[in-house]
Amino acid sequence: xxxxxxxxxxxxxxxxxxxxxxxxxxxxxxxxxxxxxxxxxxxxxxxxxxxxxxxxxxxxxxxxxxxxxxxxxxxxxxxxxxxxxxxxxxxxxxxxxxxxxxxxxxxxxxxxxxxxxxxxxxxxxxxxxxxxxxxxxxxxxxxx
Length: 144
Known about the structure:
Blueprint: E1 4-8, E2 15-19, E3 37-40, H1 46-51, E4 57-62, H2 67-82, E5 88-93, H3 98-103, E6 111-116, E7 119-125, H4 130-141
Parallel strand pairs: 3-5, 4-5
Antiparallel strand pairs: 1-2, 4-6, 6-7
């Protein structure tokens, strides 16, 4: 069973429960605006949360002790809000879930992957400023 999170709609303020894995694009239950989809995945549910997602997925391999990870995390969450409905952000703590990191040969953190229908589309390691990450994400998603 996958977990869920509560997300407050940026448009109307309604609180919505979003499961880590589901079909489609999450929308606010009150105003139907797209919601930022931020989930966590571990060894047991990575395939369900990431590989089976209907939307492209930005996977953030991180650790609590990693300073650059703590810098990148809020940037990714802001991008998830700005580009709600176009991708799903999935955070993987490499200390708690080493199997997904090993699957992709993650050697450094933060490492970011963009997956689409279970296929790797793009990958980058290390921290970067918000404009650089936004450009990389938009190019990988095929956005202008």
